[in-house]
Amino acid sequence: MRAVVYTETGPSSVLSLVERPTPEPGPGEVRVRLVRSGVNPTDWKFRAGMSQGYDEVVPGQDGAGIVAALGEGVRGLAVGDRVWLVLAQYGRAGGTAAELTVQPAEQVIPLPDGADFDLGASLGVPAVTAHRALTGAQDGPTRLGPGTLAGRVVLVAGGAGAVGNAAIQLARWSGATVVTTVSSDEKAALATAAGAQHVVNYRTGDTAREVLAIAPDGVDIAVEVAPAQNNALDVEVVRNHGTISIYANNGGETFPIEIRPTFSRNLRYQFLLLYTLDRDLLRAATEDVSAAVAAGALRVGEAAGMPLHHFALEDTAAAHDAVEAGLVGKVLIDVASS
Fold first, then answer.
1. Model pTM score
2. pLDDT at position 146 over 80
3. Per-residue DSSP letter, 241
4. What class, spelled out in words, does domain 2-122+306-334 have in CATH?
């Protein structure tokens, strides 16, 4: 099989396309023939040096394809099933930038009818992260579905990003009113296409005043990508007993917390990282995400506010560079035609 690998961390030039033997699934494992591989920021960050631990690594956490073989004891899947993958390269060397990958069965999820492989490869990291950001609120639901966020207001920072886009769509599917912040008219159009009812350009006005004009009592949940830059805003606009869900460190590694205005509002910070998420929470997220996909509520493409950018397997280095450079939209690697 063809696979993209790296044997040392560094710039995208450490990636190379090689031939490797067909991997065999062990007990409880599934071999998947990849059609698409999704590229996330953590893929280039791992490759650049954030993580290694193996002599050779195939990058890629997310992907979609077809079940090719089952290991002993696997139930609920069959050869030929269309599936999507989550956490493919976390805790193992073999990710999704390859024609074949072997994964634990619990991380191989049936792809609902009507969903294509582009969508399947775009779920994983963004959708599961968004799910946890919306379900970890101190007085909110533990699962998502129609009506579970009814009557609530969700503020999504960076609504044109992959996690922001998924958070908007999942929150809307669950009945929430969604406000999002963006930095340009182009990104405002994408966030609106994703389903946000209210879009605030934080570069052109008083963001807190605009958010509170929409939600006078404050928002219930802030889904936050840049706490070092936005914490003061979040504390100002999140309601009493609200939650600030932080899933990234864009714009800075630390931020100060003013104690009195924070505890006087009974605010809760939820820090979340997909890779160390409890297995039961991961399972709940994949089930809810699949339900949203089956309902047509979670989509990708220009019409859903998430433009798609396709790269060939041999151009995986360019795909990594595009994500690192902040290309707006979802970067996908075409491993096979279908």
1. 0.96
2. yes
3. E
4. alpha beta
